[in-house]
Amino acid sequence: MNERNVINGTLASYLAWAADLVSPIRWFLLAALALVLADLKFGIDAARHRGEVIRKSRAVRRSINKIIDYICWILVATSFGQAFGTPFGIPVLPAIVLLVVYGCEINSCFNNYFEAHGSRLRINIFKWFKGKSDIIAPEEGDDKPDDTPRPPHETTP
């Protein structure tokens, strides 16, 4: 009976520590899940628009990998907040780290959305943080129509 009490007490203390760790970051976890699901949906739509074959096993596997990556990033950001943010009085340090990580996913969601709807626009929200207003730009590609003038080094003989 004593051994059972020791195991239950140890488990309860570890679960309390885990609950204290997860409690302040639960909204970051929810945001990561929402971004991954949005990127999955818009990515599938973009692949259909491109005419690619959708393999559900690959989509699920990549989404699960992405969720695990975000959990790791959230834990890294929380660790930075505890190690550097709290001692130096920077309480927003985890949010700044996750803003950079989530910014990449937001760019991906928007770009997949535009591609799925036939638009050649590209979004870069990091330009907005630099104070620029041109966060939307047309996609630059190699597929130029034949009637456009080309520089001399691109002409064919």
In helices, the fraction of residues equals 55-70%
Structural class: mainly alpha
Which spans of ≥5 residues are poorly predicted at pLDDT below 50?
Answer: 144-150
Annotation field: number of helices = 5
Quaternary structure annotation: single chain
Physical arrangement of strands within the biggest beta sheet: 1-2
Count of distinct strands: 2
Overall shape: it is flat
Instruction: Give the H and E element order.
Output: HHHHEHE
Average pLDDT reading: 82
Topology:
Elements: H1 2-22, H2 26-50, H3 56-88, H4 93-116, E1 121-123, H5 126-129, E2 136-138
Antiparallel strand pairs: 1-2
Task: Describe the 3D structure.
- The protein has five helices and two strands, in the order ααααβαβ.
- By secondary structure, the chain is mainly alpha-helical.
- The protein has a two-stranded antiparallel ribbon.
- The chain is flat.
Give a concise summary.
With 157 residues, this protein is mainly α. The chain has helices spanning 2-22, 26-50, 56-88, 93-116, 126-129, and strands at 121-123, 136-138.
Give the tags.
two-stranded antiparallel sheet, single chain, mainly alpha, 157 residues, flat
